[in-house]
Amino acid sequence: MTGKRIGAYGGSFDPIHVGHLAMADFVRQAADLDQVLWVPTGKQPLKDRGPWATGEQRLRMVEASISGNPAFAVTDLEIHQGGPSYTIATLDALQHQWPNAELRFIMGVDAANDLKNWQEPARILGDYHPIVMSRAGWSGPDWPMLEEIRPDVRALITLVDAPQLEIASHLLREWIARGRAARYLIPEGAWRIIIQEGLYRER
After folding, report:
1. Number of structural domains, the chain?
2. Which structural domain range is residue 48 located in?
3. Contact, 110 vs 138, CB < 8 A?
4. pLDDT per residue as tens digits for the range 24-76
5. For the sheet containing 102-108, what is the strand order?
């Protein structure tokens, strides 16, 4: 990946769904990225519950879902590091692996509007120039809050009007638990893992 423009796309992906794939491909084109690097999260410090599937299962679901697309890659960095996953540490580690790459952070507008609660938000903005995706129900970035972090934030962020596909992993987990139809909202490879390993079923 040396010398490439890489977008780091983090998330629980619990499970990955077709909305994730559509948004990643749209952002890749809109932001002129060479590659989207999927980063399944470990333990997220700002979330009390989850993930539901194990890290290895979520990693395999992503691998199976993006297989065959040369513009997509996945890293197991957060899955195998143990402990809470802090975005700035992950981005720094990825930049260390590919020092000549232009590494950018892909995030939703909801996450951007919570950035003040993250570790070293000024460095995330300044060093990794986030690509911020629109999301249903959110009008846009909270510019006054973001400008408190970095006054020049508007020059650092790229806004992308991503497809508004109202699919949520937590709803898919509920549907699977209740036996409702979720099959065509989840990529084929990930769906096989869910069925074979009995993920998200009520216990």
Report:
1. 1
2. 5-165
3. yes
4. 999 999 999 999 999 999 866 555 555 589 999 999 999 999 999 999 999 99
5. 72-74, 35-40, 5-11, 102-108, 131-133, 158-160
Angle (CA) 114 66 84, round 5°: 35
- The residue among 102, 56, 173 whose CA lies nearest residue 64 is 56
Instruction: Tell whether 125 is covered by a domain.
Output: yes
Query: DSSP letters of 113-139?
Result: TTGGGSSSHHHHHHHH--EEE--TT--
Scanning the structure block, which residue is given the tokens 């199976």? 64
DSSP tag of 140:
S
Domain containing residue 69: CATH number: 3.40.50.620
Only one residue has tokens 């596909």, namely 165
Reported pTM = 0.91
CA 71 – CA 58 distance, rounded (Å)? 20
Q: How many CB atoms lie within 10 A of CB 25?
A: 15
